[in-house]
Amino acid sequence: MELFLLSIVNGLIQGGFFALFAVGLVLIFGVMGVVNFAHGELVMVGAFTIWLLHAQYGLGYIPAIMVAIILVTIIGLLMERFLFRPTRSDPLAGLICSIGVLFILQVAATLVGGDGPSKQVPPPFEGTLVLFEFLRIPYQRVFSLLISVTALGTLWFFLTRSKFGWALRAVAQDREAASLQGINSNRISIIAIGVGAALAGLAGGLVAPLTNINPHMGHNVIITAFIVTIVGGVGSLLGAVLAAVLYAMLHTFMTVYFGGTIATICGLILMVVVLIVKPSGIMGVRVSE
Questions:
Q1: Domain residues for 113?
Q2: 176 by DSSP, 3-state: which?
Q3: What is each CA distance from 88 to 14, 103, 233, in whole angstroms?
Q4: Is residue 123 part of a domain?
Q5: Is residue 162 over pLDDT 70?
């Protein structure tokens, strides 16, 4: 029973991580129409920044997260200006450019941290939260879950309750029609990729003390993001959040009882089943051509 409840808690926490970078990927794709294959590397850069500034140079954990978010956001904005905007009429070219950025960021991380053993970041929050007298949750995981929920909740509020959210949804549905209504689509694209990159940087900062950090960790991140995006429904932010929690629960339970390899296989099977049964994803958002 203890293991079962702990798996549920860990699944929720992992779901928060998955949702952060998956929502960012969906946001960028929805507005710009390009699949950013370097999105996993943005998470990696965020994690590497925490390792470098916090673990190596002693900067406080919270300031290090802020630096990570700013750095990754700048990278995202540079990608929008010099890669995605010039190739807007050719999504395939944008995709290929993002793959190039993927390798550039991997090489940069290798130059900074080396290609040796994975890096470790000591958890800045010590101690555990005790629930029901037997369920112990490290404060680091509690902090990560709270920040993830807060970030996603804030984003959801602005997307549904603000003029910016209305403009973003308009550009995602029809860029030309939105421009005719006076919406600056370039500005919306900049904001969208900035927010998406910031979420990736935040995810990297939160996951840094909880995982092994290496230049190639972005591979698993982007695979997870694709699974979550497809299961949730391409273009659906709410679907991405729900799918992130669903996949995290599945992955956690499969890892606990059957191992990590089986967990990954089950995730891929889930994606295939969704594509066969409901290709538009669990939220039913269809992509118009």
A1: 14-216
A2: helix
A3: 33, 21, 22
A4: yes
A5: yes
Provide the percentage of residues in the chain whose pLDDT is more than 90: 71
CA dist., res. 113 & res. 48, Å (int):
8
AA identity, residue 213: I
> Is residue 114, in this structure, part of any structural domain at all?
yes
Number of domains in the chain: 1
> Is position 102 within any domain?
yes
User: CB-side exposure of 8: number of CA atoms within 13 Å?
Assistant: 5
The residues, any chain, with a CB within 8 Å of residue 276's CB and separated by 6 or more, are none
Q: Which residues contact 74 (CB under 8 A, 6 or more apart)?
A: none
What is the per-residue pLDDT across 93-148, written as a single tens digit (0 to 9) for each?
A: 999 999 999 999 999 999 998 887 889 999 999 899 988 777 888 999 999 999 99
Beta strands in 221-268 (DSSP E): none
Looking at the domain assignment, is residue 162 inside a domain? yes
94: Cβ–Cβ under 8 A, 6 or more apart, which residues? 32, 34, 35, 83, 84, 87, 88
* 3-class state of residue 35 by DSSP: coil
Q: Alpha carbon 189 to chain centroid distance? A: 18
For 43, other C-beta atoms within 10 Å of its C-beta total 33
Which tokens in the block code for residue 230?
Answer: 């497809």
User: In the predicted model, is pLDDT for residue 23 greater than 80?
Assistant: yes
pTM greater than the 0.90 cutoff: yes
